[in-house]
Batch of 3 targets.
Target 1
Amino acid sequence: MRARTELTGRVIFQGEPGYEEARKNWDPHTDRYPKVFVFARRTQDVANGIRWARENDIPIRARSGRHALEGNLSQVNGGIVIDVSDMNSIRLDKKNGTVVVGTGNRVGRIANALARQGFIAPFGDSPTVGIGGITLGGGIGPLQRTIGLISDNLIELEMVDANGDIIIANERQHSDLLWASRGGGGGNFGIYTRYKFSVRRAPVRATVYRIAWPWEQFEEVLMAWQRWAPSVNTRLGSELTIGPKRGGNVMMEGLFLGSRCEAVRLLRPITSIGTPTERLIRSLPYRQAVNFLLPPDPVLTQRYSNQFSSGFGREPFPRQALKPMREFLEQVEGEDAGFFFLNWGGAVSRVAPEATAFYWRDASFYVEWNSSWTVPSEAARNIEVVRKTRRKLQPYIVGSYINVPDQGIKDSGPVYYGANYSRLRQIKAKYDPRNVFRNPQSIKPAKRD
Ligand SMILES: Cc1cc2nc3c(=O)[nH]c(=O)nc-3n(C[C@H](O)[C@H](O)[C@H](O)COP(=O)(O)OP(=O)(O)OC[C@H]3O[C@@H](n4cnc5c(N)ncnc54)[C@H](O)[C@@H]3O)c2cc1C
């Protein structure tokens, strides 16, 4: 039977001009050879893409900011990629404290646009991550202890379902879909085209900081950070990165929504550790503070492939956990390889685990680690070292963050979603019973009675 629906939007088939650029994700390891890319300009283009794919029996992937960290998530061989990145409007309603954004926006673009107008929007550590993907998985970053996860601020959404029908979800209608979209992860229920967030006034100034230590001091710094960061004033967000032994260092960055003087005092328990090689604590107009924390992160020229794994620490890592960390850091290479920690608590932990799909609320910190490579023949070795380290750290972590997935995790549903997994499966069965939107670790529809 001939397909009835025509593709609309900016359509690029394999072999046509623009195809090679279209298939470049941030991580080259996730690039695939889809049959066609549709760059949607409006919601109807998304609906047409989904209908066309179903009529032609072609697998579908949604894409926004191209920052997927595992394979077969935002691209698939022979499939259709419905890319929303041209849908990037931003409409701030100052009176009602809301912003409506196209899901094709990048996090940094929104954070900057709002900061220019005196409003605050949560962000992570890269300006080019797509709001489309990051929101659905949760959205963590240094402001989360004050204003929650990105998804905690989501109050309405527009999504195109597997039939090509447009659904608006908020607290009054399709509230189950809103619940599932706050942490249930991308690529599960449909293709999202618009988000509405609640926003609040930004402070006039904020204090940013960056403290660095020699790599050799990572154990001392981490032990102190774990005791300090989860309980420090909740207006202070702290990211701790520990690079590879070869060429890396220890760096703590973040911001405090308050004065420099108070920040200096709050940071003292950690700045007094070891012998820092850099010690920058600076009060900036809020807009400049955003720029400080979101340095450029170009997508098309990023050349490292990565394997990540992630989890949450409820208790500080004991001394025994530092051994596998050290072994890992001695083996890995690459600019961004290593460990990353982010402090938990405050607004994130005030929300009950079952209140949204994002379950891991009661942790002390988030942790991820990654190994990277540029030569494809080195992929297997690097992937294995990350997964081996997960096995060794398993006694000290719970769960895993769906936005930083690891396809080596078996039976991953409860690992990503804890006790929320069964409700997510029910909602999946309601909105996508035929499992049209699926990827290697997507939510399986609950079986009908
Ligand atoms: C350099 C870098 C820094 C990062 N920093 C942070 C951070 O600080 N905090 C944090 O929380 N996460 C961070 N992440 C992880 C990031 O949140 C995830 O990779 C996220 O999924 C990326 O979303 P995207 O839209 O850019 O990616 P894409 O590759 O476009 O999509 C990723 C996933 O989301 C799905 N998806 C995307 N758009 C839609 C849509 N419109 N509708 C339905 N599904 C969709 C895709 O199908 C895919 O499964 C970072 C990732 C990278 C590479």
Target 2
Amino acid sequence: MDLGLKDKVVLITGASGGIGEATARAFAAEGAKVVIHYGKNQAAAETLRQKLPTESIAISANTADEASVAQLFAQAAARFGQVDITVANAGIFPPDDVPIHAMTTEYFDKVIATNLRGGWLTAREFFRLLAKTKPESACLILIGSTSGIFGEAGHSEYSMSKAALEGLKLTLKNEIVKLVPRGRVNMVAPGWTWTPMTEQFRSVDEAVITALQTRALQRIGRPEDIAHSIVMLASETASAYITGQTVVVSGGMEGRVLKQRQEIDPTKA
Ligand SMILES: NC(=O)c1ccc[n+]([C@@H]2O[C@H](COP(=O)([O-])OP(=O)(O)OC[C@H]3O[C@@H](n4cnc5c(N)ncnc54)[C@H](OP(=O)(O)O)[C@@H]3O)[C@@H](O)[C@H]2O)c1
């Protein structure tokens, strides 16, 4: 199936690793031109750029910073004239479990600034560019998380940042059509996926078993699982009438294991 993505310009934030990198490869395989955004990992972004089969550019920006995100889109527009598809993927997940009673505002603010403000700034600069360039079609894909759907004890700031993007998605699907009548806004919400973000949990059998107890498919996600759903949603051929939706890519996750068996006393039930 021709997904109609040849020569489309796709900007992917956080494409220097993990899900963003797999997404850049998947779009390039469909013939799209790619703006590889990265934060600090220039080497990874440049290596990716050299390997992609289509025209691409690597640009650094701090997605939590207003001026930096504006400059990212200005540079992308200077190179390609317009951006047709944006994937707001850059994000952080502090690995430690920190319950709310032990969490500082500095810790909270950092995650909110990167994930929520960063997603909002990316969307705003994309929409500002759409208002100027008015392409025939346009698509924004936000990257959420099962954490924003089921919650995640010890990660209130992260689950909030991802849940809030749901509201952004629902609002922007109604705003984008005022700029670009065929424009669409959707979200892909990954479950646990093997990337640099989660690498340190690979050897923690208990954590993997607990996660697999919550889903039908007995494996952790791969970046390509997420990337292919993003490409499918971005394609007008495949998804022209899909907007305001969240595709959960989590192997059929149904919730959280809240207690291990040994913590449960059935005599007190
Ligand atoms: N992996 C999972 O299990 C999982 C599950 C659910 C949702 N997600 C979401 O999926 C997205 C991608 O995650 P991943 O696992 O692929 O993460 P990753 O491998 O850690 O990659 C994160 C990317 O975001 C960039 N980034 C982070 N903070 C930034 C900032 N302030 N400014 C600019 N760039 C920044 C990083 O750039 P540099 O490295 O170049 O600095 C990197 O390219 C995130 O939004 C994450 O929350 C992941």
Target 3
Amino acid sequence: MTILITGCNGQLGTEMRNLSLLHPAHRYFFTDVAELDITNREAVEHFVTANRIELIVNCAAYTNVDKAEEDEPAAHLINALAVENLALSGAKIIHISTDYVFSGEESSPRREQDAAAPRTAYGRTKLEGEQLLLKHCPDAVIIRTAWLYSPYGNNFVKTMLRFGAERDELRVVNDQIGTPTYAEDLANAIYAVIEAPEWHEGIYHFTDEGICSWYDFTVEIMRQTQLRAKVTPIASSEYAYKTPRPHYSVLDKSKIKQTFGISIPRWQDSLAKCLTRLCQI
Ligand SMILES: NC(=O)c1ccc[n+]([C@@H]2O[C@H](COP(=O)([O-])OP(=O)(O)OC[C@H]3O[C@@H](n4cnc5c(N)ncnc54)[C@H](OP(=O)(O)O)[C@@H]3O)[C@@H](O)[C@H]2O)c1
């Protein structure tokens, strides 16, 4: 298959590129904004036609939640309108979305069919991207994920490693619950979707296994790296968020596990893998 991976310099895109070495049967094009700006409809159409792209894995997105709140049109352009450009290109699509499409006020793992109710500009634009994609490409695959981290880019793990080395105490919220998700695990799941004997369209949820708070996550990062900073739990109300954060980000992964026969690692085990790589980088 001829596959285009957009947003290839991001966390997930980089892991898709790394793992492509283990999936050599395909022909790959890896692009980020410099090679293919997905907000440019003509450029997308031309690229897909000229290179006979059969499948697009869209790892490109506007992911800065606070900046999206300040400049929703910019987030809308990339998270919604650009997804429509991909949807109109004629290729099959695997698109990545987010737990932020939900309100974050729930208390049971979110299933794919649960009602979306985004409370942020980021969540609204990502939800519109899903809707535009399904309008033009009803056979698309959408995978919603949460709390992504990797050795690349900016993410919570890298921030906490830096703070843990610089500070004596880290104050971390203990009332936002979710599941850390190693981008390599998500990339593996995407390859399972690509290489499944049959194409199974629809919305899926994917995170690593387990549930924790950001405080629990930080304690585990400090434990695994033997950093000595004291980690103190605080309430979200004690932290000056610019944008409301979901209190509950846990996704039900039954559908993706059953449909594609994948097993998902525990978040603590994947964290250990990422920390090993980070120490080597
Ligand atoms: N990070 C998370 O915690 C998280 C949680 C839930 C869901 N997700 C979703 O998971 C997916 C992957 O996230 P990620 O963390 O890997 O994102 P990321 O690291 O921010 O990577 C996104 C990539 O897309 C590129 N991009 C932005 N605008 C573009 C454009 N117009 N054309 C082409 N490329 C463009 C970015 O370039 P620049 O850096 O130059 O802008 C960046 O390289 C996204 O759909 C995201 O919404 C992420």
